[in-house]
Every structure is written in C-alpha cells, then in structure tokens.
Amino acid sequence: MALKPLDIFKFLPKTNCKECGYPTCLAFAMQIAIGKAELSQCPYVSEEAKKQLSAESAPPIKTISVGNKEKINLGGETVLYRHEKTFYNPTGIGVLIKEDMKDEEIEKEIKNIIEFKYERVGVVLKGEFIGIQDTGKGRFVEIVNKCYQTGKNLILITDDYENLKNSLKLSKDVRPIVFSQNITDEIIQLIKEFNVPVVVSGKNLEEIIQKIQKLQNFGISDIILYPENKKIADLFKNLIFIRRGAILKKIKEIGYPVLTIPAFLTDNYLEEGIYAGIFIAKYGSIVLLSKINGEVLYPLLIERLNIFTDPQRPMTTPEGVYEIGKPDENSPVFITTNFSLTYFIVAGEIENSKIPAYLLIQDTEGLSVLTAWAADKFNAETIAALVKKTKIGEKVNKKVLIIPGVVAQIYGELEEELPDWKIILGPREAAHIPVFLKSVEI
C-alpha cells in the first residue's frame, strides 16, 4: 500500500541537498507519495532503507513487465477509482489465435494486429498482444514463430511441455506469458528457467489461491490471474472482488493483474466487444478478442485512452507554430490553446478545408480556449506576446490572424496590441472552420 509523505520522509537523509531535483527532503517525499518521483533519485538513501521502503510502498496490485519492442506493464494499480489518484498501466488489448484456424484467418489476424493503429491527440493507439492457443494440431510452435516476428507481446496457451519449451526458446526475449491449465512441476521448472510470467486459472478464487501458493513455494511471483467464469455477471463480480480485496483488505494472495478473454463468454462478436469494454473499465489487465476489426477495436482503444489518462494532468501540445498543408506568405494564421484535444480538432478542420494555414499554439497549461480565457491565460496580451515571440509575422505578407469566436471579447484589445495585423473573428465551433475559410475574405 502506498505510504504517506511523512512515512517516506523517515527513510530520507534529511540533508535538503537538492540533488534529487527538489528543494527539501520533505518535498521529495511528497512527490514519491503521489507517484511523481522515484526513491532512486536520492543519491544518499541507504540500501537498507531502499529495501524496506520498497517493500512497504509496493502497490497492492503487483506490477509485471512483459515484452521487448512493445514493452508493457501490467497491474501496479493503487486505487479503485481513477479520480482518487490515477490508473497507471493501461489494459493490454490483443487477439486470440487458435491453432486450428485456417491459414488465411491466421494471416489476416496477424496483419490486422500489426496494421490497425490510430493517432489521437498525439498518441498512437494500437493493440499489443497475441494469444496463441494450442488445439493439438501440431502447428503451435510454427504459429508462435509467426506471431513472434511481429514484435507483439505473446501469451502461450498450452499444456504441452515440448510445445511450451520450444516456444519459450524462440520467444524468450519478448518475455511471453505462459498459460497452462495444468501447471505441472515440469512446466514450473520451465517458467523458472525462462523467468516468464504465468497465468493461474481456477473455477473459483480459493482454487486460484491454492495454485498461487504452490508457485510461490517455487519462488515464482510474476503471476496473472484468470477466473474461469462462464457468465459475464460472475466474472464481473470476481474482477471487482479481486481489486477491492487487494486494495482495501490487503489480501496479498490476489494482488495480481487479471487476464480476460471475452471470446470465451459469447459467440457474438459485437457482444464480445461490449464485454471487452466492461473489462477495460473493471478491472482487466489484458483483454483478448477473437478477431481484430476496426469497428470494435477503435472504440476500445479510445475508452482505454480516456480511462488511463491522468485526470490531474491535461494532455498538452508544445507551444509554437504548426504548418497545416503547405502554407506560404499569403496564408492565414490561426491561434488556439495547447490543450491537445483542441489542437487536434482545430488542426483537423483546417486540413479538411484544403486551405493551407499556420496554426499558433499558445501554452495555457493544457486549458481549453474558454477556460484559459476565464483564467486570464489566453488574452490579448498573451496572444500578442506569442505572435512577436514566434516571429510568425516574418513568414506572411497579409498578416491575418484568426482568433476563436468564443473569445470575441478580446477582439478590440488585440487590434490595439497588434496594430499591423488584421484580426478576424473565427467561428465559435471548430467544425465550422472549412465553411468559414471559404466564405471569408482573407
């Protein structure tokens, strides 16, 4: 469980040397407590203190790292609700490939998990996992090799010792997850030898805990849970029970990430997508789909982005001048705030207009236009200062500056601040920019 700042402060040298990047040891302790600093930033804390603090401050849900090229952390959560603090490690999304699928189906899903990616507010959204299920057709290792070539994170679903051993040999650098229903002593030795995470399944939590205790006796601690529920209601209850039990009741035996496979709950792909959305929100660490389709994958990626974006830190775009299309000396200049969603919407609508333009982005600490104006961070003085700072006037002849229509109040003041510029009041909604540009005389 996360420690309070004063608990952390007791372990620090109390020299206020500032070498950690903070003015005092207490300030540093406060940053550690809220997850914005690491104990390793202090060069003088003792090894004994590191060990003790690490043990006491470990998150109730164990953090497990997998992958290589697309490394991802699972678990590591400390709260039940995002508004309490934040969620740290986004749910991994992937596809389940069964060994008995036709070659063209396998190739299609591998291609889709690679190619289906989207950019939103400057973030690339994509799936990260491929699960390969052994169905006894003798092709398991061959399919694992194909999936390994993608660089995606792998989940090896097999009870066959030789298949598992050979698959681990070729994919060990991506640290695949092992999922065996029957975890024999031989398989346990493989897990230890290759140091990979293992999925523990069971029809109920009592059975899962018994298996976990057996693995812990062998020194295995990177564990992922898989409740074998056949009904969505039962699985939903177990996901909540696991999270609440680990965080509120400090039940260490269930403090692990959870794998969910909605494909095992329904044959309806759209229903499967709904289940996946539930598991992303409550509280699946991995979601495997039966196939990758844009109409299901994209909404899930957006849901994940929204849930795992820190509510205390607005997504921002760097201040500066952005070229939309290929603007020249006759192009207009737009201005807006650095809230990323605002930037991408405005930039997208300018691009849709097919009229090249410059877009000035002002640093308003991630606030939207109206909020920034209300906070006096987006006004005539700050806009004029940015225009002069960026020297955008040297790139254009007409010097036309288009401001958001919702801040019409600053129009007159801005004309006084920038007397050599023509100020034009733009539309109130970004969606109206294409029509606006075609109708206004610039």
Defining traits:
442 residues; alpha/beta; 3-methyladenine DNA Glycosylase II, Chain A, domain 3; TIM Barrel; Rossmann fold; 3 domains; 8-stranded parallel beta sheet; 17% strand; globular
Task: Explain the overall architecture.
- The protein folds into three domains: 5-57, 3-methyladenine DNA Glycosylase II, Chain A, domain 3 (Orthogonal Bundle); 64-307, Dihydropteroate synthase-like (TIM Barrel, Alpha-Beta Barrel); 320-439, 3-Layer(aba) Sandwich (Rossmann fold), CATH 3.40.50.
- The protein has an eight-stranded parallel sheet with strand order 10-9-8-7-6-3-12-11. The protein has a five-stranded mixed sheet with strand order 13-15-14-16-17, with helices on both faces. It has a two-stranded antiparallel ribbon with strand order 1-2.
- It is an alpha/beta fold and 442 residues long.
- The relative contact order is 0.08.
- The chain is built from 16 helices and 17 strands.
- The model has no long low-confidence stretch (mean pLDDT 92).
- It starts with a helix and ends with a helix.
- The chain is globular, with a radius of gyration of 27 Å.
Instruction: Return the CATH topology of the largest domain.
Output: TIM Barrel
Helix tally?
16
Largest sheet: 8 strands, parallel
Measured distance between first and last alpha carbons:
60 Å
Give the percentage of residues in beta strands: 15-25%
Strand order in the largest sheet? 10-9-8-7-6-3-12-11
Query: What is the domain total for the residues?
Result: 3
Number of strands: 17
Overall form: globular
Specify the CATH class of the largest domain.
Alpha Beta
Uncertain spans: none
Q: Rg to the nearest angstrom? A: 27 Å
CATH architecture of the largest domain: Alpha-Beta Barrel
Mean pLDDT: 92
Give the helix level as a range of percent: 25-40%
Fourth-level CATH superfamily of the largest domain: Dihydropteroate synthase-like
Category by helix and strand content: alpha/beta
